[in-house]
Amino acid sequence: MEADGSGVSYSEAMRKNQLDREKAELLAKISKKAQEESSAPSKQETGRPKRQWDVETPVHPSSSSSSSAVAPVKRNRWDQTPADVGAVAATPRRSRWDETPKAAVGETPRRSRWDETPAMVDYGATPAGNIGLATPSAAQMAILGKQAEQQQQPPLQLPDAMAARNAFQTDEELDSLLPKDGYAIMEAPATYVPIRTPARKLMATPAPLRGTSDGFHIPEESRHADFGIPKEVPGVGALPFFKQDDMQFFGRLLDGQSEDDMDAAEKNERQVLRLLLKIKNGAAPQRKSAMRQMAEGARSFGAAAIFNQTLPLLMSPSLEEQERHLLVKVVDRAMFRLGDLVRPFVHKILVVIEPMLIDEDRYARAEGCEIISNLAKAAGLPAMIATMRPDIDHVDEYVRNTTARALSVVASALGIPAVLPFLKAVCMSKKSWQARQTGVRVVRQTAILVRSGILPHLRSLVDCIGHALDDEHLPVRTATALALSALAEAAAPYGIESFDSVLKPLWLGIRKHRGKGLAAFLKAIGFIIPLMETEYANHYTREVMVILIREFQSPDEYMKNIVLKVVKQCVATPGVPVQYIKDEVLPEFFRSFWVRRMALERRQYFQVVETTVELAAKVGGAEVIGRIVLHLKDEAAAFRCMVMETISRIIQSLGAMDVEGRLEELLMDG
Predict the structure, then answer these.
(1) The dihedral of CA 466, 471, 477, 483: what is its sign?
(2) Cα angle, residue 455 at apex, residues 454 and 456 outer, rounded to 5°
(3) Is 233 in a helix, a strand, or coil?
(4) Residue 543 pLDDT greater than 80, yes or no
(5) Is 423 helix (H, G, I), strand (E, B) or coil?
(6) What is the rounded CA–CA span in Å between residue 611 and residue 590?
(7) Residue that wins the pLDDT comparison between 12 and 107
(8) How far is Cα 64 from Cα 406, in angstroms, rounded to an integer?
(9) Using 50, 70 and 90 to split pLDDT, how confident is the model at 204?
(10) Exposed, middle or buried, 477 (CB in 10 Å: 0-12/13-18/19+)?
């Protein structure tokens, strides 16, 4: 080797460095031993365990002063620097968090699974480069062996204090907490095995493997298996479905009882149940076949077997509309076949069918009217009156209302002259005002059903209820006024002479009543005025318009609807002067009704539009359009739509011949 610039060869320099490293290692061992000896008596003197911050940190010698040792100086634990044997110069100071914790003598060092290097799993792919392919050394094999031994050790146990806190309460502790009276000790089931280790329960949670789960699927609903109901009912066959609610009515078909021990009545009931089940839950061919068998065998089955099974089923709250329609058809066809045999069941049939008369669905109302009409034809008027007589003066308003509608259906089916004597007796009743109110309601509903068919009997019906306008009870007077309005509407444009006897009470009534009573009287006058001759219509319109203009400011929604309808009818009546409408009606009408709030209520929205179009037809389109054209730029969108619809309907019906000049510009601008 050649010597460098200082005259020292390279080998000599390496030997010198080796000697320096050995000296530094020896000094470090000496310093460590002195530190342990100095800390031993302090533990005995103080009586407390040694802490890391009580250790004196030695100062390592530098390479320049390798032959002399420096005395240890007390330092903070944050300044403690571990010795580095392999360093030639002084090693930089490190924090204690960089140190590896030392285990006690004879104790296996505890390692966390988070400190372990995850093993490479061969998924069939070739690893990139030489990662994970190097042959482990002997030291690495030893470390791996220790890790395997640690993994085979039993799980850590909780400390005694923690185990005591998590232990179950004993019987003595429970007796001290709970009173002795009122509690009983329940024995655990024989098969009960408590899970003592929640970690094991958590690890036992199943998780699908990657690529084996297609996500969540809603299970298919089985209307048979959910309730233990077979798909095939004995004597019926296979059905598309069998609901849980059907067990209440058709459960007898599944009891397995033999029909050999039954009498004829029970056999008929079971046969009717089978046919009803086919009609209700069967497919289309099953329904048709069962309906035909039910109609043809109605007399052989008997009225009791049919109605005792069908009527309770019709009262089921879970019945769907289609099922109700099919069962109503069964009742209708059975009544047609049975004839007068249905008389003992008139009351039961009415109890089931009468609520359909006030149903929201108009098809259900039509079905109810058809059933009661056929029932009246089959049972006769005496049976119907005898059945409904107790409900005429019933204390419940709902029962009286449905009874009145049913009686009106009977009157329309059997003829008004047949029912009129009974109605006169009811309306003249001195015993109960509820009976008089029900009789008046029957007249009103009859007029709504029969419409122009009441003309031959109009005077008789008006005389039947006219005296009730002076009744002492307000509900009776209100119902009478509404009945007169229905009669006038049905008879229009004829029959004014039949109302001569009630004009004076009606005119006095609009001056005495307020609220709903006044609304009913105004409605009656509004339908009677169009029936009058021209001069009388003009006179009565001027008289009633004073009341109508006063009620423009009413906050009652029902009153506003009645007022709008009456104004529309009075304005459309021939003989009413145009100038009177312009001067007296239009200013107050637009001030009260053409506001934003009217556009928010759908029913009043259409009523205001229709009345405004009728006013435009009377006084001219330009007069009305000029009053609302500026609202085309209103901030409220609903109000703008209301104005636009009114203008469109006016122009469609009257044309735009009278729209000129400035009004045309405002329309185009709006």
Answers:
(1) negative
(2) 95
(3) strand
(4) yes
(5) helix
(6) 11
(7) 12
(8) 123
(9) low
(10) buried
With a CB cutoff of 8 Å and minimum separation 6, the contacts of 555 are: none
CB 279 within 8 A of CB 290: yes
Bridge partners for 546 per DSSP:
none
How many CA within 13 A on the CB side of residue 335?
A: 25
Contact in structure between 309 and 270 (CB atoms under 8 Å) = no
For residue 188, the model assigns a pLDDT of 84
CA distance 72 to 69: 9
Q: Which residues have CB under 8 Å from 584's CB, separation 6+?
A: 545, 549
User: 252: which residues sit within 8 A by CB, 6+ positions away?
Assistant: 270, 273
Alpha carbon distance 203, 197 (integer Å): 10
Across all residues in the chain, what is the average pLDDT?
Answer: 81
- H/E run at residue 238: strand 237-238
Handedness of CA 72, 73, 76, 79 (dihedral sign): negative
Type of residue at 17:
N
Exposure b/e, 334-373, CB count within 10 A at least 16 = b:
bbebbeebbbebbebbbebbbebbeeeeeebeebbbbbbb
Residue whose tokens read 């094991």: 200
Peptide bond into 493 cis (omega under 30): yes
Reported as a single tens digit per residue, the pLDDT across 416-434 is 999 999 999 999 999 999 9
* Distance (Å, whole) CA 586 – CA 150: 100
Q: How far apart are CA 134 and CA 321, in angstroms?
A: 78
